Amino acid sequence: MSHRLFRKKSVDQILLDTQKEGGTGLAKVLGVTDLVSLGIAAIVGAGIFSTIGLASYEGGPAVSLLFIFTAFACVFTALAYAQFASTVPVSGSAYTYAYVAFGELFAWIIGWALVLEYAVSNTVIAISWSQYFVSMLEGFGLHIPAWLSMAPGYAYDAVDKMNQHGMSSLTAIDQHGLAAFNSAPRIGGMPIIFDLPAGVITFLVTWLVYIGIKESQKASMIMVMIKVGIILAVIFGGIFYVKPENWTPFAPNGLQGVLGSVAAVFFAFIGFDSISTTAEECKNPQRDLPKAMIYCLLICTVLYVAITLVLTGMVNYTELNVKDPLAFVFKYVGFDHMAGVISVTSVIAITSALLVYQLAQPRIWMTMSRDGLLWKKFATIHPKYKTPSFATIVTGLVVAIPSLFFKMDFFVDLTSVGTFFAFILVCAGVLYMDYSGLSAKSKFKVPYINGKYLVGAGLIIAIVLIGIYGKDTLNEWKKLSILEIIEHKMLVIIFWLTWLGLGIYSFKMNFSLLPVIGILINLYLMTELGASNWIIFVIWLVLGLGVYFMYGYKHSKLNKSAAV
């Protein structure tokens, strides 16, 4: 059985499968400009328009450096994705890559994790879109009832906070939640509260994705031009309101405050990998996908760093714990007209990110269905629109229903867990490709730097630096019991053991340095996420394994071919 769990698909077999059962039904219409547009649409979305405020509030102006560090991590991962995309130019993203490198069980796990990444990411984006949309309407004097524009959790939190600390303790968001609780219609004494705009926009975007990739790409291109324009306007307009004293202290909460924003900052970069799901719709995926991923990361990193410095320069970081930071800073300095323009364009900008994620998710399911791991219906290609029709409808439901009832905060960290997991496996997959000789088929390769001595030397240097500069951290560890270390520091232990293992194997097998760095950086960033998110992620994986062993293992095409 263990042999069957790790059965692999060859690159030739995957390419052959796309010629069968409607695999060629997807329209090849995307060029490198289209891919860059889709990538920017995915990356520059809810992250820059909402979570960037929370990140700045927690870490201060130094969060701009965290954006650079996170982009640095993403570059190594993007190179790994680019090599796989040039080798296996089909839909499926990391799922397909894992099938080639590690076998069926790992492919299922990564595919299941990607379901979580895209669905949860889009839920966050839909909720963020709703907040900006409601704010925009209020600017025009139109008001959606509070009970129709938020998750019930906000209302219940506001009531609890008022009961414990009184009305004076309520923030603006709390007051809005309390208004929703008091004004909501009731059934059996229970208030009816849900986020209607989030559900409606998800439905509309799903419909657009359903009717065609080219229509989706054209809409995305227009929205990208608008939102990049407004971001540049914020940067160049905000420069005149920057007060350098607001950048002091640069890291008010120290390194821990900056790293505490990892989830929010990393969420702002999630999306560059989503364009790899459109490989079958690219005119020349081996050439264009690698270029598009790198271009997207470079453009977005420059925009993020610039806008973070402008925001924290215009307003003290302590004022930025708001859901609409770009509009807020211009209201703060009295430029209400600009704030209004930002509110309108941010609605458009976030819509484009929602569109790309809704585009990516069905193509993951379609590819898993082709392999027999999901029901055949998920691989259905619409005869007229040439899109994975059934999978697109299911994606709409999976995103729309949670966005009606859940708070944004619940999903942000959870998204990052699944994404880090996928990124690590893709980087590790490149090491396997080098080892197995698959890299010979790659039209784009991660630049090779021999890590034979460098990986181990880096570990030794890191240990020495911790001994010199990390005495506070070491003292903190000494105070913890064994159970506390297991509960709170297990991921840190796994990180160091992984580095040790990679150092040993790099010495033995001459591992390429860049994928190793990608693995270590992503794993380190994972250690900064909360334990509760890991518990939910593990539960999600357990559920996924249940689906696999009840259906996927038996119906896998590789299983059927082995039985013949």
UniProtKB/TrEMBL annotation:
Domain Cationic amino acid transporter C-terminal, residue spans: 513-556
Keyword Cell division included in the entry's annotation: no
A Pfam family hit: AA_permease_2
Name of the protein this chain belongs to: Cationic amino acid transporter C-terminal domain-containing protein
Record's keyword terms, sorted: Membrane, Transmembrane, Transmembrane helix, Transport
Localization (cell): Membrane
InterPro entries the UniProt entry points to: AA/rel_permease1, CAT_C
PANTHER family (UniProt xref): CATIONIC AMINO ACID TRANSPORTER 4, INNER MEMBRANE TRANSPORTER YGJI-RELATED
Organism: Sphingobacterium ginsenosidimutans
Chain ranges passing through the membrane: 35-57, 63-82, 94-115, 192-210, 222-242, 254-272, 292-317, 337-360, 385-405, 411-432, 453-470, 482-502, 509-525, 531-551
